[in-house]
Amino acid sequence: VKATGRLVNVLYRIRITDEEKESKEVHQLQDQTLALPLSLWNQGERASVQIKPAKGLAAMETVLTFRQGATGKDQRNPMFFAQLSKVLQYDPPSEEAEKQFIADTQTQIGFAEDGAFDYSALSAGQQLAILDGQEAGHNEVQAFIPNRGVKVGTATFTSDKAGNYGDDWLLRSAMVLAGAMYPTTEVSRYADIFIDGSNEPLTGQRRYTMTFGPDSLPPVTSFWSLHMYSLGTYDLVPNLINRYKVGPATPGLQLDKDGALTIYIAHEEPADAKQRANWLPAPQGPFYAMVRFYAPTRAILDLSYQLPPLVAVKE
Q1: Among the listed residues 245, 247, 194, the one whose alpha carbon sits nearest the alpha carbon of residue 222
Q2: In Å, what is the CA distance from 298 to each residue of 162, 213, 235, 308?
Q3: How far is the C-alpha of 121 from the C-alpha of 50, rounded, in Å?
Q4: Is 127 helix (H, G, I), strand (E, B) or coil?
Q5: Most buried residue among 85, 133, 187, 304 by CB atoms closer than 10 A?
Q6: Strand 311-312's sheet: what is its strand order?
Q7: Within 10 Å of residue 188's Cβ, how many Cβ atoms?
Q8: Burial grade of 199 (CB within 10 A; 0-12, 13-18, 19 or more)
Q9: What's the CA gap between 151 and 174, in Å, rounded?
Q10: In angstroms, rounded to a whole number, what is the distance separating the alpha carbons of residues 84 and 105?
């Protein structure tokens, strides 16, 4: 796998069907997984080695605000640009589009070639312009997140550009902010769901069902899974039963009499036993759902497959 930069983040997944029975084996696999420079591997090193930049990089949470309801106004922080300048110094862009973009903007922002950034050296007008741009840019990205792909029914499937964004800066920003790491679509494709079948935003204040007909389960050659994420933090939310996805390997799933699979999505635990078996807990406030298709078939790649909508249960 050819990396395009020096800062590399690797995400690997191990599929398990029974966490209680398989957790020991999974931890052994994780302990045996190494990450180290190839040069050290060739020298005989067999332990993970982390190479850090000489100039320390702060955690993203110190320069960006991640919480429910955060807007561009909450992101106004000159330390973000100090962080960005260091990153660009350590890991300069390799693609031509990126090189040109940085060349056209870094001197205007005030980045020095050595990675320094002195916010206090800028005029009051320049300081205001940078923070205004930061606020407006974040709001533009946030607004684009529900539309960062191809709409099929009520779901938005990841763009064909996933993993290879080129100079589509808005798409790249929206994908990274609300997901960070996306594979190319032939490896796995995702579908975001922000609205129910009546085009209303999803919220934990309501209960929903999602029903797959007997012959309409996601067409994949590996497996699929349905997840819930908080809208704002774009992260999983702790729940009482520690269930964060529903898929073919979810223990105890019950089918309808006609062979259909109905998943119940709600913040509160259902009273009905069958609904509890097929329950995927939702956050208390606004949320969105994501369906992941691992090793998708042609129907997912050409977008001829349509996910069933989330239907709000009438109280």
Answers
A1: 247
A2: 17, 19, 29, 18
A3: 35
A4: helix
A5: 85
A6: 279-281, 261-266, 208-212, 311-312
A7: 21
A8: exposed
A9: 15
A10: 12
Q: Are strands 279-281 and 261-266 parallel, antiparallel or unpaired?
A: parallel
Q: How far is the C-alpha of 116 from the C-alpha of 128, rounded, in Å?
A: 19
pLDDT score at 130: 94
**Ranges under pLDDT 70 in the chain:** 55
Query: Residue 53 CB: number of other CB atoms within 10 A?
Result: 14
Q: Are 83 and 57 a contacting pair, CB within 8 Å? A: yes
The predicted pLDDT at position 258 comes to 93
Per-residue confidence (pLDDT) for residue 128, from 0 to 100 = 96
What pLDDT does 26 receive? 93
Give the separation between CA 142 and CA 162, rounded to whole angstroms: 18
> From CA 267, how far away is CA 24, in angstroms rounded?
31
- Rounded Cα distance between 178 and 289, Å, is 12
Cα–Cα distance measured from residue 182 to residue 188, given in angstroms and rounded to the nearest whole number: 9
Q: What is the pLDDT of residue 14?
A: 85
On the CB side of 28, CA atoms within 13 Å amount to 4
* DSSP 8-state code for residue 313: P
Residue 70's SS3 state is coil
> Distance (Å, rounded) from C-alpha 279 to C-alpha 294?
22
The pLDDT of residue 139: 95
Cβ proximity of 53 and 86 under 8 Å: yes
| Predicted local distance difference test score (pLDDT) of residue 88 | 87
**Rounded to an integer, what distance in angstroms lies between the CA atom of residue 82 and that of residue 86?**
6
DSSP 8-state symbol, 244: -
C-alpha to C-alpha distance for 137 and 283, rounded to whole angstroms: 27
- Candidates 310, 300, 212; CA nearest to 266 is 310
Encoding tokens for residue 234? 């774009």
Please name every residue paired with 156 in a beta bridge, in sequence order, or none if there are none. 151, 192
